[in-house]
Each structure stands twice: as structure tokens, then as C-alpha cells.
Fold these 3 entries.
Entry 1:
Amino acid sequence: MIKVSETAKKKVVELMQDDGYNATTDFVRVGVKSGGCSGLSYDLQFDKQQEEGDKVFEDNGVKIIVDKKSFLYLIGTTLEYSGGLNGTGFVFNNPNANRTCGCGESFSL
């Protein structure tokens, strides 16, 4: 399961509408890919359809899809949004990450 904070929900809905997506029917695709200064990096994009093997969740009114491989790295993660002085953007609070980089966009297990 992937959780979505209230601030992340508001930003997701706003960005989806700006990009022509419907937050009530379309998805936020969350994934993990190789790269970044810690070895793995997060991938976040909008999608209108799920693929075979995707895990589907809904939390706080946001529909999330995760591919099977990425799901193993993301179990228990909370998607948050930070708009503070230290940077603006989505933040992944991942309890599985042993090490994260300073930017918070990559991690290792």
C-alpha cells in the first residue's frame, strides 16, 4: 500500500487538471528505476490506464498504480508534497530505504 498525504493529494489533483487528466478516473503511476546518486530513483507520472500486472491502490482519493517490480521497493511508502524553503516537490517517505540522497529523489536498500 502507498499512502498519500493531504498536501500531496491537493498538488496531485491540481497538476492532473493542468495536464488534462481527471483525478477521479485517471491514475498516478509511481515507480522505481535504476539511477540517481544512491542507486535507485523514484518515478512519478500520470496515466490513463493500468497495465497487466500493475498493483492498484486508492488512498485519500488518489488512484495509484505501481508496476509489480517497483511495488517491492515501495511497500509502506507515503507520498508527500513539500512547498517549503528547502525545496518544492513530491517527497517519498520510504521505510524500506536504508540510504537516501540529499535531494530525496534517490535511495538504496
Entry 2:
Amino acid sequence: MIFNHPILGPRDAQEFVYLGDASLMRRPDGMTAGIEAFHDWLYNRDNPAGEHRELWYHEQGDRSWLVVTRNTVTHEVIRVELARDVAKAMGRTK
């Protein structure tokens, strides 16, 4: 697979490490969420067929975190975004 890195351009997926579902970015607030919310966030994952958002780390490059949207059936890469930009759009500051 080729990821069109937002800063570096097209890069081979072998330069990256897969880190899981991008929903990991929606960690519950530790001050307000209950134990059930943390349990669901930590252990419950979807396994979709089709379009899916994933976290990837550019280990052999600029060490950036990316959110890659791809089709899990065809492996077509639909969109590649910097994780920091996605987090800001979600209203996260940390």
C-alpha cells in the first residue's frame, strides 16, 4: 500500500507501524467518565468490512502519527491525515 503522507508525499506502508482503530483517539475523560466507559474504550472494537479509520505511526520517517482511511476489503487508501489535525477537529487539545 502507498500512503500519500500530507507532508512527505507518497510513502510505502512498510515505513509505518499499524497502531489500531482511530477511535482510540476518543479516549474518555478520566475526570468525568466512569469505569464502564474506559472498559468499552479499551476492549470493545468494531471489525468493519469497508471504509475504516486507522492510526499509523511513521516509524521509519518523520515519526508522525497519521489517520488513514482505507477500505478493509480492497485495501484502497481513501484519505491520509495528520493525527494532530484530526484531534484538533475533534476538539482535543492533549
Entry 3:
Amino acid sequence: MEQSEAELKEKVIEAIKKVYDPEIPVDVYELGLIYDIKIFPIHNVYVLMTLTSPSCPSAESIPVEMEAEIRAIEGVNDVSIELTFDPPYSTEMMSEVAKLELGFM
């Protein structure tokens, strides 16, 4: 059965939640590093994301790991990950889960 865009987006979010910033015990989704997820026709996935800082030591590995997790989803055709630092990351972007985990609340 063909999965809907909404179902595929949920699976993409689940895959992204498997990726952690090595320095922080919280996944990149809960950290608020994901700005946008789009599903285009023929199950092409586009993710717009940032990093905690432009000099983040994991700048190379996080997008690569995330792309691999998304590509592993059945039915995904292609994956495009775009990095941006606009707007710059701030701790306000974290979910309440992440803020609790890291002691911000």
C-alpha cells in the first residue's frame, strides 16, 4: 500500500530522532535543529536543518548520519539535506523534552 506524505513525514521524524549530537544526550529533532521537512512527489525528502554552532565538530557527521537514517526508510526515493545558519540556533528552539533533559527548566 502506498504511504501518504503524512505517514512518510512521521517516519522521517522517527529516523531523525535516531541521530544525536555527540556532545549532547538529546536527539537533533528535540534539540530544535530541524527547521523544515518536505516530502516531494515520488517520495523525495528535503530537510532544512542547522547545527548548534557553525564550528560544531559534528558538522560533517550529523547530516550524513541523518541522510543514511532517512534513506533506510522503505519507499524513500531521494534525500536532500540543506544546512543553514539563518536563523542562528538558540536554546529557545529546543523542545520541552530537551530542555528538561539538559536542565534548562
